[in-house]
Structures are given as structure tokens and as C-alpha cells.
Fold this sequence. Notes:
Layout: H1 3-10, H2 16-32, H3 39-55, H4 65-107, H5 110-122, H6 126-136, H7 142-149, H8 153-175, H9 181-189
Amino acid sequence: xxxxxxxxxxxxxxxxxxxxxxxxxxxxxxxxxxxxxxxxxxxxxxxxxxxxxxxxxxxxxxxxxxxxxxxxxxxxxxxxxxxxxxxxxxxxxxxxxxxxxxxxxxxxxxxxxxxxxxxxxxxxxxxxxxxxxxxxxxxxxxxxxxxxxxxxxxxxxxxxxxxxxxxxxxxxxxxxxxxxxxxxxxxxxxxxxxxx
Length: 196
């Protein structure tokens, strides 16, 4: 059976899916080999293409099956590779953060750091300190604190921003470091998620 005959009967006969798959499989594998050498990934992509082709057979209008298969295979492979790349980037960011956290905890005397942190909180202006402690120590939302203290949510946000800046500045000044990233990471772990 030639390829044109198979194309005409393809949408009428489920058994022809396997035959079309066999006719084009090797050529498509070589083609996708330009994008990756991962044969398992190539085979998975091709299987997905043929499953999708069969599932969508009633809504597709294909004039050249070979063109359709090559184009679909390429697009599927590029999407998979983009997703893998995105996942690898997320994993690298996570690994870097974990290494920085471990480094920060090893290189900073936590007792001393906690003392400086508490000193910074105690040095906040009274209203600012009360709001900060309500939000952080009592673990209440800005809205809850605003209702309890009869203030606006915007006031709570502003006071928390002031508290973050003052705590960060105080701790960094006490340590006298030029690269505060380790200290900022520790401040984040303390619950003072401060933006640089």
C-alpha cells in the first residue's frame, strides 16, 4: 500500500494508524534527531503526535500527511524542549537559593544575628514596632491588624515597609558587610522578607 492510498483511507480505518506510524517513524526519528539525541524523548513525541492525530481526525483537514507529520513533530519537540529548559532554570534557581541559605547559616553566628535582629525590632518607632510585631509575631494579615488597631490597610503596608527598611539597614550596618545577600536571606528566614 502506498502513502497516498493510506492517506485517503486513514480517517476511516483505525488500523491504518499503525501502518502510517511504521512508514514515517524512522524518517521522523532522524528528523527530530537534529533537535535532541534523546531517543526516548523522540519516541514519546512521535507517539503523542499520532495519538493526537487520531483523536482530532474528524476536525483536521490534511492534504499532505508527510508535511503535517514533520511540522507537528517539530512543534511538539520544540515545546517539550522549551518546557525542559524552563524546568532546568527553575531547578538551578532553587539549588542556588539552597546553597546560599546553607552558606548564610554556616557563615553567620545565628545567636549574634538574632540579637541584632531583635535589637533592630526594638529600635523601631513605637507605632511601627507594634504593627510589625502584630504582623510577624502574631502572624496576622495586614487586614486583621488594620481592623484591630483601627487603621487603614495602607497605613499598615507603609509601616511594614518602614520596618523592613530599618531592620535591614540596622542588621547590615552592625555586620558592616559590602555584600548583604547572606544577611538578607537570613532576614527572610526570620520572617522579615525584605526587598533589596
